[in-house]
Specification:
The protein is mainly α. The protein has one domain. It has five helices and no strands.
Length: 142
Amino acid sequence: MNDSSARNRPEGNSGGKIQNLRLKWLVFAIVCALPLVGSLSMWLQGISLIPLSAYGIVSVLAFFLYWSDKRKARTARWRTPENVLHAVELAGGWPGALVAQQVFRHKTRKISYQVLFWAIVLLHQVFWIDQLFLGAHVFALF
């Protein structure tokens, strides 16, 4: 396949489907489990609705930023800076970013980007482990 045929494929299409879909759904469910349980428990205990809302709203924002950046990349226009994408991921948009990476096949091959992305996901995991199991001693919520 030459570069021009790859460029002319429909957006987010790698032959019509996401590769290893079941495995990717499993990984997604696993990495989302702690933040979801933690956010729901904070909301149900009357502590705060902010984490649950932030994950949802900021994930949608991240998804659309990836979509926009992919479109800009294909048309050689000004791109969304990677630090903006990472800031949105850090603010709770990493689930939406993870889905967008697979749907649009965007930022999946750049190792330096993926290292920082997964460090952000790990940071969220550690935060929720601390909140749920360690009595919030590592991270103070407020």
